[in-house]
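Researcher: Next entry: LRC43 protein (Tricholaema leucomelas).
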Amino acid sequence: SSVSAAFWEHLRGLCLQDFPCGLGSWNKSRFDAHTSPSRSQPGQEESVMLDEESPEVLMELLRDPHSPWALPPDCSSQDQYLREVAVLAPELVCDSNVFQVLRTLRIVGKGVEKVDEGLLQLQKLEELILSANQISRITSANLPRTLKVLELCCNAVADLQDLCTQPPPELQHLGLGYNKLCGPSQNKYLTVDFWPNLVSLDLSFNNLTDLLELISQLSSLQNLRILVLQGNPLALIPTYRGFLVDSLPKLSILDDIHIGPEERHRFQGLARQPELIRSEAQLVVSIGEIKGVPNPSTHQQLEVDSEAPVITYSYCVTYEF
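Model: Predicted structure:
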């Protein structure tokens, strides 16, 4: 399915045209632009208003967690905002008008495979979250130019070429964690030529292996302050963190850990010693528990003159990475 299809399905679930949102007998007089002269007669207008609900009452129905019209606790702030707009100004979320209101779009875990051109209708969209879907390719031409946050965590993105053809120029955060990026072929797309305003970059849990090549590209991102690379093979290199800290002096947070003055001083000069980066990793594997294998220590020693057969156990444990 496409993002647009998931978006419209999501809107239908918000019930923006149904009570207590939208227009109806519960609030129609407040938005009736063609009020008849008889409405101005004393007592009549009051009686009409008594048949309706005030904006305060309608808003309370949306916000009270015990209300049958309240959204679930884990809903996004944007969903709640749209529902409240549908109470105070229903015309703003009617039909295509909603495109002018949305600044955040969150479509998570909906099986989306395609980012289609329908997104271009969201002319003021600043934040697009498409985590936990099935997106393998994303074309930048279908992304609103106003985007500042693009989150694609937990998808199947393996190639950034289409995304970098015409990327949103004001993008500040790019989330590509838990995808299928392989280095060094994708490193060339992580430069200032494509992301001049990037502040935060998440590349965690991909298959990036060339630390030196990656740093040479990331060093051009002068605004980069937050970087996540944990979960990649290159993060297993013993000098990984120190080399990054010294190579990217403007970085503030690496792998969700703040970079303090003491750490930066400790690794000072390491970036000028690339020979210390070795193409090997050291792993320590600890066996906590093995199930289904008999414990030899529990078997009683056989008597010397016993005629019972002697049983010998041997085990082979294989690790696959």
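Model: Note for the record: The first helix runs from residue 3 to 14.
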